Amino acid sequence: MDVKPKVNSTWIMRGILEQVGFIGPNVAVWNTMRAKGKIRMKSIYNILKPGADKSWHRLMKNNLARPRAIIILWLACHMKLATKSRLVIFDLMTNSECGLCNKEETIQYMFFECEEIKNIWSRILQRIQVNHTPKIWDEEIAPAETIYGAWNFRNGVCFGKIMDREIAVQDIISRLFLEGGLVRFLSHILLD
């Protein structure tokens, strides 16, 4: 089945129509799931990406962070966060510069290369007494709360809110201790 999007289709519709090619070879599997009345996201994911092994899969499983932090983490892991460089691709912005330091804002850059965010990482790791330097996205084991806190800090600055880095760090650390995320974070670093 070959379906072409219309010229004026939204980027969401174009993305959906691009997936039709994946469904074609798996029609029998889809029909079986529909007949049973049990369509599970895990099954769909396995059909679309058989044997996919993501370095971040441990971050999602049994994560104790707040749901909103896990959603931001999920979007970041799938490279779907609305960074400025991504918004430029969809013609929603004309400037892809980081609102914190004026360099191109990608997910990799924002969470691991931007000096403001690196400072947040280093302060949190220092406070929880972990000797670790965040490196690159695919290899990093980062707590969802830190990703969420860094995203909120960036958004506050980009949208004109006066943001205090120390308050952002304190909030993230509080969440790590209160939500139990620190225990999971440390076990990943120390046991891997």
From TrEMBL:
The superkingdom listed in its UniProt entry is Eukaryota
What organism does the UniProt record list as the source? Vicia faba
Q: What is the lineage of its organism?
A: Eukaryota, Viridiplantae, Streptophyta, Embryophyta, Tracheophyta
A Pfam family annotated for this chain is zf-RVT
> Protein name, please?
Reverse transcriptase zinc-binding domain-containing protein
What residues does the Reverse transcriptase zinc-binding domain cover?
A: 41-121
